[in-house]
């Protein structure tokens, strides 16, 4: 049985970590981009961002004033038991979100869509989102918080088999160019691409590809992995950099996740996880241990399974 | 690969003289000193549509309007906990900006992403105002350091923390980039034009989607704003 109190306390720590500390994988990706960026203004922006991450950590303040819309991805082992059950768990995550909003502080972004009413704590109808995943075996719970920002940089389109890879590239470029101008997408970003599923799951896949995979991870399908690298390269060849200035840093990494779709369609979504790629992860065990990490490790073999029954692979290789 | 050259850095008052503004060139880096206030759609609607009295002496106290909601909280004792400070996208406020400038005398509009050339021509140039963009847009922690203290918060009860009018004492607050000058030229548009020249080549080997959308354009020199 995992202590509810420990879950709430850990969740509060994660809220602060996500807002303040840039994850190492993204930081290294941005440093690499800054080294090769030769556009005067783009280069200035990247170096200012690197300085900003330092300032955020030193001062213990959020990296960005727009602290996004906090949400939770919760993953549990098949044997996991949480004190008080799922309802108590959700209440604990809502409490942690509200407390951290005032404590860090975060910007209380969440309002009612029509009445614009504000609880000043990022909690409301459907907020924060809490999504679940399960893994065979294990008694632990993974708490993952993502504070994705941005009203711009995300788009969806119904493509068809005849659009092919050429159509995928076109929609990818369109999304980057359109939202990259003036830097509306807050690039360079981790670009997540969802392919297939249904409209809603396509959006979910793309968002998770952006937010729940680390820079440098590759899809286990070698042909998809190749396309990821090709799209990264393509995005960085547009001639546009940070803030839409002339440059070559648009994409820190391009991650693709796929789901089986309707035989007639090829749904596609594009998502940009911005210069403040806020994510933090911890695994909590029934014996009270808490292990912090930055890799959500969401897309395991089990999450990407294709078959009716699940049979664990012979040798377990850690996938992205 | 050339080594990028560093842009020029300038300190500027938040009640700037016309001469100081005339000095600024597109792409200059600016750090601000003086009082800055946040005002976005909530403040604009309240001041311009509901004709509420603006609770500050403008532009005498400040001519710097920041399109911003800070990550901040008001403590139970009434003191402020100011975290990161980052701008929000300005193009959405086009509807109010002319009337707001006329009423507030703002000379510096600070935000994310600039406004359209039309807005600069119609509102900024006649009012002798320029646009400063934040950097990144994520340098919230650096900008937060430049806030010496929160002087006060107006209209919190009426508008909520995110839309309230925060009055901030800035000391070497920045960096900001000069996006528009007194003649109404735009840095973003200058950069867009340069990038557009290369786009046809980047799009080689792609093809338009078989299912079109109403209102779709293939002119990639176009912008989404405005």
Which labels suit this protein?
heterodimer, A: 320 residues, alpha+beta, 5-stranded mixed β-sheet, 4-stranded mixed β-sheet, 7 helices, B: 226 residues, alpha/beta, fumarase, two-stranded antiparallel ribbon, Fumarate hydratase (chain B), Fe-S_hydroAse_TtdB_cat_sf (chain B)
Task: Report on this structure.
The complex is a heterodimer of chains A (320) and B (226). Chain A is 35% helix and 20% strand. By secondary structure, chain A is of the alpha+beta class. In chain A, helix 1 runs parallel beside helix 4 (85-103) and helix 2 (24-36) runs antiparallel to helix 3. Chain B has one domain (9-202): Alpha-Beta Barrel (fumarase). Chain B has helices spanning 18-23, 41-49, 94-104, 117-124, 140-145, 156-159, 187-202, and strands at residues 9-13, 29-38, 64-66, 72-74, 80-82, 108-111, 130-134, 147-154, 165-180. In chain B, helix 2 (41-49) packs across helix 3. The two termini of chain B are 36 Å apart. Chain B: Residues 7-189 form the Fe-S hydro-lyase tartrate dehydratase beta-type catalytic domain. Chain B: One of its GO terms (molecular function) is hydro-lyase activity.
